[in-house]
Design goal:
Largest sheet: 6 strands, antiparallel
Oligomer: single chain
Number of domains: 1
């Protein structure tokens, strides 16, 4: 029983390897060259809006988007294949917005939680 549990825990990490079927990046909306606004979330081009009561505080990070990446959850250590669709800096933190390719949900985290990768197709 322990072996089965261990294998189930490792499945997300193993599935991200060479055999993972990475999607075509042309299938993803994204935002680049400016900060996101609320309409970008509605249009599925962004995952977050960096804003305070005084206005927008996000500034675009100059990287090519969208991009395939491996996201590592800082608490659990789990790894997930994602597509980064947004990159902004705010309050001294570089943040990425991404789509989890396992379940389609959006996630936001600091850039150091992502390993950007190039997929040859």
């Amino acid at each position: 029983m322990r072996i089965v549990s261990l294998l189930l825990m490792l499945m997300p990490v193993l599935a991200v390897g060479n055999d993972f079927n990475w999607p075509n990046l042309g299938e993803f909306n994204f935002i680049s060259g400016r900060h996101a606004v609320e309409q970008d979330i509605t249009d599925q081009k962004a995952i977050f809006v960096a804003k305070t009561d005084d206005g927008y505080i996000g500034k675009a990070i100059d990287i090519k988007l969208p991009q395939h990446a491996i996201y590592t959850d800082g608490e659990s250590g789990d790894k997930f294949p994602v597509v980064v669709i947004q990159a902004e800096t705010a309050n001294g933190m570089d943040m990425y917005g991404a789509i989890n390719l396992y379940d389609g949900t959006g996630l936001v985290s600091v850039s150091s939680d992502f390993e950007l990768i190039k997929i040859e197709k």
